[in-house]
Amino acid sequence: MLFKQQALLRQKLFVLGSLAIGSLLYLVARVGSLDRLQPICPIDGRFRSHGQDEIPLRALQFKRGLLHEFRKGNASKEQIRLHNLVQQLPKAIIIGVRKGGTRALLEMLNLHPAVVKASQEIHFFDNDENYAKGIEWYRKKMPFSYPHQITIEKSPAYFITEEVPERIYKMNSSIKLLIIVREPTTRAISDYTQVLEGKERKNKTYYKFEKLAIDPNTCEVNTKYKAVRTSIYTKHLERWLKYFPIEQFHIVDGDRLITEPLPELQLVEKFLNLPPRISQYNLYFNATRGFYCLRFNIVFNKCLAGSKGRIHPEVDSSVITKLRKFFHPFNQKFYQITGRTFNWP
Ligand code: A3P
User: Fold this and answer.
1) Is the preceding peptide bond at 97 cis, omega within 30 degrees of 0?
2) Residue 226 known to be catalytic
3) Pairwise CA distance, residues 56 & 304, whole Å
4) Which of 12, 137, 153, 214 is the least buried, fewest Cβ under 10 Å from its Cβ?
5) Disulfide pairs (predicted)?
6) Distance in Å, CA 143 to ligand 1 centroid
7) What pLDDT is recorded for position 78?
8) Structure confidence by residue, pLDDT tens digits, 135-181
9) 8-67, pLDDT tens digit by residue?
């Protein structure tokens, strides 16, 4: 009798357990598939009457789905047409600064349902050959998006290239411009590290950072060295200000984006007039990588590629001091122009 009761209980527990596991699996699959499957953006134009700056929250929920399928080659041209997907010129561009954290910024902004990123650096405005291909060529390089989403591209070379401000101005004089900066000496060393890695890969010999950054004849900072010049942020910004008012720029603190990304992203959301949708849930610290990684939903997350977050070579402390002293007055001017103060040494 007792044996029979125990068997019955085991059977009941088995059924209940199976039901619980089944529901859990269903939930996981459902939430995961929200990203890739339907529902698809409403196609009846209900959201079309909103102003440019206003993004209807309901439309935001449908960000991925079809876009994702299209990128994977699974959505037909007919679906694209039906769902009103378009390739839009960017409403905001991350113009630099190289090694400031431009990739991290773009990927993190892409967590926002109203943002669609151009994955590749397009180099339209800084490359004469590309620029000669015309604006339609540029637009066709953009990802598909719903009309109420905004496209963002990043090409860090834009910040330092002479012709770019005027060219962007001609495309859209009210475009929003994002600049992500890091402490200038650290940025210069990061820049050097990237070039060094490239040289090493090609089995080429390369100079030490100290030798490049300091002119051996004068013992002064070598302003001909590109990694140094790029870090003189104010010089470049001044060229941009001939075309765009300062209100059209937003400066992102690249050092803070590494350690505390959410508040920096929230400031960008505000600048772009986006409803606040990126949350702490979307960002988790990965101890192995030593950086924050991205969580889109419970099944899809990713860290940036290994080329982001390289170990920098040791640099002579006197060279670091010299560089910091050199950048100091330029930094002060940068704070003054942008209205954002960084505690760079
Ligand atoms: P280091 O390689 O010097 O550490 P960019 O994308 O403009 O080339 O910038 C690269 C820098 O982004 C890296 O420089 C890294 O420090 C920084 N970064 C910021 N957030 C990051 C993240 N979540 N994962 C990896 N790198 C990140």
Assistant:
1) yes
2) no
3) 30
4) 12
5) 293-303
6) 24
7) 74
8) 999 999 999 999 999 999 999 999 999 999 999 999 999 999 999 99
9) 667 666 656 655 655 554 444 333 333 332 222 232 232 233 333 333 433 444 455 666
Could you give the CA distance from residue 189 to residue 206 in angstroms, rounded to a whole number?
14
Residue pair 331/240 in contact (Cβ under 8 Å)? The answer is: no
Q: Which residues are annotated as a binding site?
A: 99-103, 182, 190, 292, 308-312
DSSP one-letter code for 275: -
Q: Given this model, what pLDDT does residue 30 score?
A: 37
Answer whether 99 contacts ligand 1 (Cβ < 6 A): yes
Nearest alpha carbon to residue 184 among 253, 244, 249: 253
Going by their DSSP bridges, the two strands 150-154 and 115-117 should be labelled as parallel
Rounded CA-CA distance 294/302 in Å is 5
CB 28 within 8 A of CB 20: no
**Residue linked to tokens 């993004």:** 55
Section 232-244 average pLDDT: 98
* Ligand 1 close to Cβ of residue 96 (< 6 A): no
Specify whether the CB–CB gap between 92 and 177 falls below 8 A: yes
Q: What is d(CA 11, CA 140) in angstroms, rounded to the nearest whole number?
A: 60
pLDDT 10s digits, 84-123: 899 999 999 999 999 999 999 999 999 999 999 999 999 9
Question: Do the Cβ atoms of 15 and 37 come closer than 8 Å?
Answer: no
Amino acid (1-letter code) at residue 322: K
Q: Is the pLDDT of residue 80 over 90?
A: no
What span, in angstroms and rounded, lies between the C-alpha atoms of 305 and 308?
6
The pTM for the full model equals 0.83
Our answer on whether the CB atom of 90 is closer than 6 Å to any ligand 1 atom is: no
Cα 265 to Cα 77, 89, 130, 338, distances in angstroms? 34, 22, 31, 18
Which tokens sit at 122?
């397009």
Least Cα distance to 237 among 173, 185, 179, 167 occurs for 179
Of residues 336, 292, 337, 315, the one with CA closest to residue 188: 315
Element (H, E) at 104: helix 102-109
